[in-house]
Amino acid sequence: RRRTYALSGPASVTFAVRRPGAKTWAPLGADDGSPYRVFVDPRRFPRGRDVSFVAAVRSSDGAVSRSPVVTTEVRR
Predict the structure, then answer these.
(1) Going by DSSP bridges, is the β-strand pair 10-18/26-31 parallel, antiparallel, or unpaired?
(2) Whole-structure pTM over 0.70, yes or no?
């Protein structure tokens, strides 16, 4: 007997940022429609400093996973 499994896609993606020296993540926003994204104003961060970003994905079946952490230097 053959089994079939339904794949559940993302229901929402929440984005967060961590500033240099911070121990916790600060939410940037969430999106529940493809393409999943938020817009970040670089003026919120000190020029020349590194900031880290991450995305947490919640699927329609309730499972949660996260993206790799991406660190970049703020340029304006």
Answers:
(1) antiparallel
(2) yes
